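== Polypeptide entry ==
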Amino acid sequence: MGNLDVIKRLQRSAISPEELEDIHRRHKDDYRVLLGLAQHPRFPQGQALGILSKLFAVDLVRVIKNVKTNPFVRKKAELEFQQRYKRLALGEKISLLKMASNSLLLALSDEDHPQLIQTILQNPSCSEEVVLRFVNRRGDRSLFYQALAETPWFRSPAVAEAVAHDPEAPIRILQKVIPHLGLAGLQKLFRDESTHQAVRDHIRSYIENRDAGN
């Protein structure tokens, strides 16, 4: 059986662990076969873990995203990826973050480079949970808020509420989330003594215009 046939065979689930181990013995130096074995749900876990260190970072992402792969192997692939990620160049990080799974984005929500934060927020797999983790993390969040303002995420009611509760949120982003807060959230923000007058004025203007529209 040629290597291409083996790879196609590995894409099917109906293979015994014994056959998978035989394929491993006969093709232990073929990278694509090893990648297929690592992702196969019936391939012995211990041997799959041994393959992870041999994979390129982009293929670790593929292992992580493959829902058919053994969950423990996927988790270990995440840990391996996180270690590799630290040593990658900026361009490589951007490329990988564009295809990263939500679980990886959660793990990397301490990122502080503006381009990487923007890439995370624009990833189709990015969830509200990832965005909220950025809002609630410790330290300077100014770069995150700059990136947030350029995405649709500030329109999420949960994100808007979290931003409104952040005393360090910039005036610009607070003004953006005002239309996406409920009445109780608007009243609380307006009454908060620490709220900047420009934000209060924006709330008053928004409510007046809304009421006039009704």
